[in-house]
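Q&A log
Question type: sequence-to-structure
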Amino acid sequence: MGIFDPKVTETTQTDVLIIGGGLAGIRAAIEARQRGEDVLLVSKSRVGLANNSAVALGAFAAAAGTGWRDPADRHEDHVRDTLEAGRRINDRRLVEVMVLGIEAEIRTLETYGVRFRKRDGVFAVTYVPGHSYPRTIYPDKGGGTSITRPMRDHALSLGVRFVEGVAVTRILRSDVAAVGALGVDSAGRATIFRAGAVVLAAGGTGRLYLHTDNPLDATGDGYALAYDAGLTLRDMEFVQFVPGMPPYEIWLVRGGAILRNRLGEDVMLKHGLAVPKQMTRDAVSRAAYVEVAAGLGVTGSSLIVDASEMPAERWERLRGLLPPRVRDAGRRFHMSPPRSHFFMGGVTIDERTATEVKGLFACGEICGGMHGANRLGSNALSECLVFGARAGQYAAEWARNGDRRAIPTEAVDGELERLGAIASRTATQPEGWLPRSEEKLSQQLRSLMWSNVGIIRDAAGLQQAIEEILHIRHWLGETPADGGKGFLSLLSLHSMATVAELIARSALARTESRGGHYRSDHPAEDDEQWLKSIFMVKGSSDDSPLLRMG
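Response status: OK
Response body:
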């Protein structure tokens, strides 16, 4: 057999199919299984160990909780802070659901074996910029995997089935309902997953950018799946970039260290960021980006964090929060360049995590609306937990009570034919087009997104990006796969190109600056015209998205 043989397929059945092996997906799987349904979780990599949840710091923001909050802190305060960070275009209903639900979810995590930092038996809270009160808690030891490993183990103990190393390439629909999915592995084996309900939890697309702190699997597959399935996506222009390796260096700068360029200038003062409250992730990222772009970086693309004048007591207190590579570097060290970190846009859902396709639910980073234009620190994993649990609950109810429809033969045959055509391509030599391999096209796309659809944008750059993305999508149709793993990488690159176009078109349409979206040709926030979201759905006549404002 070659890279892929469309005639070699397997079929498996389940009540609830989960696509995505991060925190949201695992939580959905646990909830659905606890409600008595057979649950199968499909992931490109090892569940809970190679995704954004695993590499996260493990922070959870919660405004309520006996013994761990300021008595003055209320749910309404957390809602207000989240809406303010999102520049008031969040879906308030989703924000309220998360804020009201996170305390119970944290208690539930403890029953799975997750241990949090405590002092005298009480949760230890940390202040994170943007929050009105200290309300963030962390795991006792380690980061994201100290959360996802116990959850993984608990899911397995309940009988949740894992299928790892399989990339889902198509959500299968019967009329208006989702009835399963089709996936393929690096050995060229295809699997048809029949399901009573489907939960899409494959979020994250940081790898679309040249510089990112996201793992290798964050290639936007879930957004492309949703788009191809006819789901409405929203807020696709909002990408969060962070300075350095968050949040260590920025903690020091907010604490009194000076961020210097090659000339020794104070970068924060230079860019009007004189007080810690102004030093938001997006603002510091823009300042660092401008300095490096102007040739004022150190050793090419770094800046210097200078804590030499910080009082000794404060230095020792903050130093204890740093990882060894920074802690042992002395009081002057390089800050890594800004990088893509989190994606605020995604699938449009309601409070039950339902999409407009019956039987298809979504949760986690793949969803839009919760964070608006910019995510408030420590809200990401809280969102994953609360909406993961809801997705599992409502997917289980649908699988138990909804109609079980057959998978249309033409849907399966069409996807197998598409995969077979991609796998059987041979190399071509198009005139005037140098990048031909998947690797070169990927590098070109990621560089293009970084330079034209990254931290600072303008109309000319965005229009150029759209034109080049369309070229890349065209030549992807001629690009051969290099073996089984190359085949999966090529499929991911197709997803990345689709998502890149959606981001660029949405960014071009929003003629203002708001949150994670900064237009140098429209630098002001314009509430009169733009206190609203951009929604996108796949057009019926071609692959071009249809946009509407609302």
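Response note: Residues 483-509 form the longest helix (27 residues).
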